[in-house]
Amino acid sequence: MEGRLAGKTAIIVGAGQTPGDTIGNGRAMAIMFAREGAQVMCVDLRLDSAEETVRMIMDEGGPRAGEAFAFPADVTRSADCAAIAREAAARMNRIDILVNNVGTGRGDAPPHAIEEDAWDRIMDLNLKSMAMTIRHVLPVMRQQKSGAICNISSLAAIAGHHMVTYEVSKMAVNRLTTVVAAGNAKHNVRCNVIMPGLMDTPMAITGIAAASGKSVETLRAERNSRVPMGRMGSGWDTAYAALFLCSDEARFITGAILPVDGGTSVTVG
Fold this sequence. Notes:
- By secondary structure, the chain is of the alpha/beta class.
- The chain has one domain: NAD(P)-binding Rossmann-like Domain (Rossmann fold).
- The protein has helices at 25-35, 47-60, 78-92, 116-144, 164-184, 202-212, 216-225, 235-246, 264-268; strands spanning 9-13, 39-44, 68-72, 97-100, 147-152, 189-196, 257-260.
- Helix 2 (47-60) links the parallel strand 2 and strand 3.
- It is globular.
- The chain starts with 8 loop residues before the first strand and ends with a helix.
């Protein structure tokens, strides 16, 4: 049986990850897509981390596995986003899939305390980067008359109370997704978004533990207890959802906002 992405080409933006003992969303998606037969362009600000993801993909191998290569880019810069699209089109001949998986909450604060530079930095990485990668990839997909874009948002788009910039930016990602979906359906280009809930990823666990002063074990226990299913999700849960949305199995799905959260969104509205 062929892989679900056999013959496809994919750009994974944010394919590296923060060091940690679990797997991040971007790395899990890159590995998963390659397992399913896609050729994967692993984009990250940290080239060494993207190259580590590529090594993991190539070490797995397999008779139906796709290939992978790394590409460094600062996706807060439109010129770098244009370079991603050019390199992908030149090296892979087409762009079937774009996954936007970058974000930060570093320096965020409640509305009464947010600083201008923190607001700008978070908005640039969480929102502008996705708008710019999409802007430069869309002409290729529209010319092809096909393509699938998957943005990674967060449950914080609809729930939260103390990280104003992060929450606003993630809600804006959801709206960016629906705008792109509406404007490009006639070109057979789909755009969907995943809202992960509490996840056991290095960025979440390592970052929050360091900021809060809690041990990793304490933080994991607290976060697990907040999920209706009794445990956090993992990068693989995000990867399986993205695999479906980017595959031809979802060829009639566009503009969808998919919670991957163990039932948390059901309890918050």
